[in-house]
Amino acid sequence: MLSLKKINKYYNPGTVNEMCLFEDYDLEIEEGEFVSIVGSNGSGKTSMLNIICGSIGVDSGSISIDGRDITHMPEYKRADFIGRVYQNPALGTCPDMTILENMSLADTKGKPFDLRRGTDRSRKDYYRELLSGLGLGLENKLEVKVGALSGGQRQAMALLMSTMTDIDFLILDEHTAALDPKTADLIMELTDRLVREKHLTTLMVTHNLRYAAEYGSRLIMMHEGKNVLDLRGDEKLSTGVEDLLSKFNAISIECGN
Amino acid sequence: MGSIITGIIEEGLVYAILSFGIYITYSILDFPDLSVDGTYPLGAAVTAAMIAAGADPLLTLPVAFLAGALAGVLTGTIHVKLGVRDLLSGIIVSTGLYSINLRIAGKSNLPIFSKDSIFSNGLVDSIFAGGLAAFSNAIILFVIVLVLKLLLDAYLNTRSGYLLRAAGSNQKLVISLAKNDGTVKIIGLALANGFAAFAGCIMAQKQGFFELSMGTGMMVIGLANVIIGTQLFTRRGRLRATTAVALGAIIYRACVALAINAGMQPGDMKLITAVLFLIIIALGNLRKDRIRKMSHEGAHDSSRGTASAGEG
């Protein structure tokens, strides 16, 4: 479904700080897969997400979805079929607008942002129903500004908003990293439920090895711009946190960390 | 005394229109737009030239708005497409407009006293006869500002308005909604400068002339109005921001009138503007510090709130 072919990406090309991040990097993701990606800082996880979403360009190589080349498509156009949740809960919602207005914004995605009423009142019950599914009581706070919510509540809304319209692809960029452990667990369960309900092809970058082992159908460990581990099916199921941790440590020792 | 108060209200109402524009760029889009220093006199130049040529004064209103909007599109395009910083884009456009305004008006001072305007024509004179005549300007201005305020409120509640509001506080969200955030910025700048030029159009008709340097310091004045209005009226009360901004413009005019009454010269206006502006900003920052301190003391409560939200 998604394929990255021979991706080359250098940072600071032509300077003394030139650094090669990806060299002929390939990745194929099948429809319906839920891929967890782990790896140390600087291994290229987030850069890969940015390349897929179009936040950063590539020096060479191609990106395609369902055979359609999107290598040169601007980021906002890719958002038509890619939903993304960021590490920072503030990035997925608009803090100055109410919960109702935020839900309306997300609901209008894919339709023209014209001079019709911003909030379609007849959709209110539908928004309430979606919000009550989060189990956070947000359905009773429709007129509250999102800026007044906690990080966990905002992230739950961000997740809901990014999956509200039809998307082919969900990108989760360390989306539980800024939350306390309990809230993170809650958001992770919610993620899993949404992905299953909507049959979303999902890429999740995480630093939490437990989430990587427990959730998803495929697991990739990245190191210095390469996949050092790529497990699916039974292989993935039989891999626990301890296995991941020992592999992780082995790599770190090689690097002298 | 009475005439001073009507004077304050009249001028305040004209500047309220300008402030609607600054509210869009500064408060909603978070874009410090200096092009208004050029688009405000642009509206006045277009208006004076049209009226001097015998055009219907009512026709100057949409034309001035469009002229300003066009200049706003230019500022936005320079910023978004050419990657020029926000402040610089505005300076480039307002500098260029100085010459363009001179071309449009033909000379640096174009009087239109003797011509009909929206404030003085056969219809207005027949409606406001007798005792009301002294207040005709204020009443006409009030109606114009009210209509513009309602239109702006209505716009901010459309889908397009929602996107504009989102663009100011979270660019990433606009991109997530599959919309080009640059285009949204350009639309906002077009609207804002449309308002600025509209204010210039009204001012030219009220004072009866176009003057080339009338735009100097307009951005600062508009900003002062917005900050006074939003600081005073939107925090505690439940006033809409647009109403607050219009009231801010009148209060600001009153402060300037007080300073002049206290013996300052009309030539000191810009100095008064600058000092008032400094005081407003400094007071605003002190307030923010106080709020920050208060919220630090309450930080423990809020973290507890997060945990309980997680359980819920």
Notes on the structure:
The complex is a heterodimer of chains A (257) and B (312). Chain A is of the alpha/beta class. Chain A has a single domain (2-98, 152-255), classed as P-loop containing nucleotide triphosphate hydrolases (Rossmann fold, 3-Layer(aba) Sandwich). Helices cover 34% and strands 24% of the residues of chain A. In chain A, the strands form 2 sheets. In chain A, strands 6-7-8-3-9-10 form a 6-stranded mixed β-sheet. Chain A has a 4-stranded antiparallel β-sheet with strand order 2-1-4-5, with no helix packed on it. In chain A, helix 5 runs parallel beside helix 6. In chain A, 43% of the residues are buried. The mean pLDDT of chain A is 92. Chain B has 312 residues and is mostly helical. Chain B has a domain at 2-215. Chain B is 77% helix and 2% strand. Chain B has helices spanning 2-28, 36-52, 57-82, 86-105, 122-127, 136-156, 159-169, 171-176, 181-207, 218-234, 241-261, 269-297, 299-311; strands spanning 109-111, 209-211. In chain B, strands 1-2 form a two-stranded antiparallel sheet. In chain B, helix 7 crosses helix 9 (181-207). Chain B starts with a helix and ends with a helix. At the A-B interface, helix 2, helix 3, helix 5 and helix 6 of A face helix 7, helix 8 and helix 13 of B.
Which labels suit this protein?
heterodimer, A: about 260 residues, alpha/beta, four-stranded antiparallel β-sheet, 10 strands, B: about 300 residues, mainly alpha, two-stranded antiparallel sheet, 13 helices, disordered C terminus
Provide a quick synopsis of the model:
Chain A is α/β, with parallel strands linked by helices and 257 residues long. Chain A has helices at 45-53, 75-78, 99-108, 124-132, 151-162, 181-198, 209-214, 233-237, 241-255; strands at residues 2-11, 19-29, 34-39, 60-65, 68-69, 82-85, 169-173, 201-205, 218-223, 226-232.
